[in-house]
Amino acid sequence: MMLDTCKLKSACNLPFVYNKKINTAGTSNADVPLADPGMYQLDITLRRGQSLAARDRGGTSDPYVKFKIGGKEVFRSKIIHKNLNPVWEEKACILVEHLREPLYIKVFDYDFGLQDDFMGSAFLDLTQLELNRPTDVTLTLKDPHYPDHYLGIILLSIILTPKEGEHRDVTMLMRKSWKRSSKFQTQSLRLSDVHRKSQLWRGIVSITLIEGRDLKAMDSNGLSDPYVKFRLGHQKYKSKIMPKTLNPQWREQFDFHLYEEKGGIIDITAWDKDAGKRDDFIGRCQVDLSALSREQTHKLELQLEEGEGHLVLLVTLTASATVSISDLSVSSLEDQKEREEILRRYSPLRIFHNLKDVGFLQVKVIRAEGLMVADVTGKSDPFCVVELNNDRLLTHTVYKNLNPEWNKIFTFNIKDIHSVLEVTVYDEDRDRSADFLGKVAIPLLSIQNGEQKAYVLKNKQLTGPTKGVIYLEIDVIFNAVKASLRTLIPKEQKYIEEENRLSKQLLLRNFIRMKRCVMVLVNAAYYVNSCFDWDSPPRSLAAFVVVEDMLEDEEEEDDKDDKDSEKKGFINKIYAIQEVCISVQNILDEVASFGERIKNTFNWTVPFLSWLAIVALCVFTVILYFIPLRYIVLVWGINKFTKKLRSPYAIDNNELLDFLSRVPSDVQLVQYQELKPDTSHSPCKRKKNNLG
């Protein structure tokens, strides 16, 4: 069973019940030979639901729908909040190889932080559909445990179209599950044009979330703690939380990749953060990118539907950066003319030309050796994913092989020279999500150009080795001045990062790191105290009064918290404690990382950054020699106070903190550390020994 979808979603196992009703008359395609090798395109419009089951305490539900064919989830709808008669009007395009497998439909009630509630299921026999004719379908939802219960209906519109002789490579970008094609069971396949097109983005969508206005109050104090979620296809981004406000000021900027020529739809939802229980839905809106002109910044004031208030955004569509996938025989840097053009593009003479284009990265993914066994056959089906910040490309799959050869070249544009290249090897699995085999993280500034190296694969946390090595050859070309200037602006956030979870080991590690930083400060304080060591009764008395006053305030807060906690249920208490622990864990990590980054700046962990700090101090010293300090402070103050007037939607930043964010912490240094390969287990080494 081969399938492809317009929306890329992860797979999961779903039980279903059959109950369908087709509201059209005519001959079906049941007499079509099921062994027909031709492809079929199934265009489905999820219309609406009626009289769905209530699963929430308020007598409503937050329904969404999943489609599944052949054990794979192929579509998931958006969530319609607090509605038993939801209207979706969402379209899905599915390619199926034959019609034996039915289309399964399952409806869930979304519960934030908890397991989603089952609301009913049904399935549709594709052999009963008439070819090339729109069909309206009404499906009655059932629960296999309670077959007599009425759970409502789902209405669909379906068109089944034959795609004779059309075959597609189904290895796709950003899927958690990759379907195996029987055509390439035993041999590696050459990278096809379809494979390239499915990964290479055609443009960049730059979004700046400015502010919210007059949002709906969701808390008892008449305020909210709002944050915003964005989704464009498989790409997702979540803003920071703004506490206790109905007019939040975010000033956050991020980029999405645009894969479709005609644009796409950005789904935007606003939420109120609630500790210990499900977050409240504030409202939703959409941005149709096909209606926006390119190479121009658009200011959008969007009214929130199903709620109150507005969101203010800046959206810019630009042409695609230079990314490519090719075979090993086609290398940009080995072609003399192309190499000269790349060197000219990043020469010192082009400092002020496109400051976001810092450099060029070429990655040759050659082969891997001695990989972990992931299948019961004693083999694996490995493929490789190459990531640079939010740019993500992948190789084809080499089936039944622990020593695969990919021989592919990937090229990226570098927006930040302090980025880290991540190369991950997965095992493609037929019936579930891909299995992790190993990973390496390589800072761009540590790369030695043109050198083929064997990198030992590490575990998911990058703290220790796993089985196997991967051979890479990497080249980096960049403009040092552009790279230095980009160091002083906010770092790009990864929108596919997983949220932090509570970990006893991680909490203990962060506490120890924090303790080391505090001890450094304590030792410095003792040193200063030794220089000014005399008794001061007034100062001691003042400190005693301040400390006593702080303790009284804490006791009052504790009493107030005790009264509030009595009203909470046991489950809410558990969630609240967990959130507090995660917050403490994250704060310890941030403080410890801050201290470690300062230390690593002065001990030349990253020479580029240390030299940049020295050059900046020298320039400031020279300026201070010729210009009085009061004039410098005056100019700095005028710049800060007039920044909002000159650029009302500028994103606030602190250049010193942006600089320190590029310096690796001690934990990151361990993750980036290269491990020496064990040559005794290399297949090539064993072959030589056998020949000897």
UniProtKB/TrEMBL annotation:
Residues 21-139, 185-302, 336-457 form the C2 domain. The keyword Lyase does not apply. It is a multi-pass membrane protein. Coiled coil: none annotated. SUPFAM superfamilies: C2 domain (Calcium/lipid-binding domain, CaLB) (SSF49562). Keywords: Calcium, Cytoplasmic vesicle, Endoplasmic reticulum, Endosome, Membrane, Metal-binding, Repeat, Synapse, Transmembrane, Transmembrane helix. One of its GO terms (molecular function) is calcium ion binding. One of its GO terms (biological process) is regulation of neurotransmitter secretion. The keyword Transmembrane helix applies. It is found in: Cytoplasmic vesicle, Secretory vesicle, Synaptic vesicle membrane; Endoplasmic reticulum membrane; Recycling endosome. The chain crosses the membrane at residues 608-636. One of its GO terms (cellular component) is endoplasmic reticulum membrane. It comes from the Eukaryota. It holds the Pfam family C2. Belongs to the MCTP family. This is Multiple C2 and transmembrane domain-containing protein 1. It comes from Callorhinus ursinus.
